[in-house]
Write a structure and sequence with these properties.
Blueprint: H1 2-24, H2 33-61, H3 66-88, H4 94-117, H5 128-158, H6 165-195, H7 198-210, H8 212-238, H9 242-270
Length: 274
């Protein structure tokens, strides 16, 4: 089950990285620093758990290839930079905070792109070289925005008098990430079928024949259900009713998480980034 372990631990990495991108979309001057402290703490804890789980995998293959070594190195830099950003929130050193935050985003993104390389077997000039990193990045953005959306909703339950603009911005980011991932899934399914490497086409055919129920569950739970919930969240924010919107965000988070976990199972079974 090493392949499933690697794909599932990637899930934790994506939450931490995508959550930072979601934080970057928030208006820093409109939210109290307490929100960033609590949210960064959650993301750091998730990132640490994912890195701890991958230590054994890194140890087994750290020096096998240059991309594998670089992936581990960027992962370490990502965790350290995220920890520095978290620490900076308790100080007034704005340059240190900005640099550690930027370093977290860049190193995390580089590490995720390199992680994608280990999940496919195709030439470097193939369509897989483009599709896999983009898929992993879109998945990270979706996981991060739905997580931060739920967390920011809970912050509004604590401080109900603040502007709803940050909530709306995270909500829009969530919808864009959801639509982008769904649209790209359809796009690369067609691209793989016509232009994929022979091994990829074979795995795609095996996916449709051997795992149609798992694939359907992944699409329904991870894509269709959150789309319906996103419309409900929008309607409740129009009232506005932040408590109801937060509850719906929590349900959307469960749907996205379950859908992405099913996607990691498909990744382990077929090496396809669904």
């Amino acid at each position: 089950m090493k392949e499933f372990s690697a794909s599932f631990l990637l899930f934790a990495y994506q939450i931490a990285l995508g959550g930072l991108f979601a934080l970057a979309a928030t208006p820093f001057h409109q939210l109290e620093r307490g929100f960033y402290k609590s949210t960064a703490g959650v993301l750091f804890a998730i990132g640490i758990l994912g890195f701890w789980g991958k230590l054994n995998l890194y140890g087994d293959s750290l020096f096998e290839t240059v991309p594998r070594f670089a992936e581990a190195l960027f992962h370490v830099v990502f965790i350290v930079s995220l920890g520095c950003y978290l620490i900076s929130l308790w100080s007034e050193k704005q340059k240190f905070r900005a640099r550690s935050f930027s370093c977290s985003l860049l190193s995390g993104l580089a590490g995720l792109v390199l992680s994608a390389h280990s999940f496919y077997d195709a030439p470097s000039w193939s369509v897989e070289t483009f599709v896999y990193p983009v898929t992993f990045i879109l998945s990270a953005l979706l996981l991060g925005t739905v997580t931060v959306g739920m967390l920011i909703g809970h912050w509004y339950l604590i401080d109900s008098g603040q502007s709803l603009d940050p909530f709306f911005r995270i909500y829009k980011f969530f919808v864009i990430a959801l639509a982008a991932e769904g649209g790209f899934l359809v796009f690369y399914s067609v691209v793989f079928y016509f232009f994929g490497a022979p091994a990829t086409i074979l795995e795609l055919q095996r996916l449709w024949l051997a795992h149609p129920t798992l694939l359907a569950s992944r699409v329904i739970v991870g894509q269709i259900a959150p789309i319906v919930l996103s419309w409900m969240i929008w309607r409740t924010l129009q009232i506005p009713h932040t408590m109801a919107a937060t509850g719906l965000f929590y349900i959307a988070l469960l749907g996205v998480f379950v859908g992405e976990i099913l996607g990691r199972q498909l990744l382990a079974l077929t090496s396809l980034p669904f």
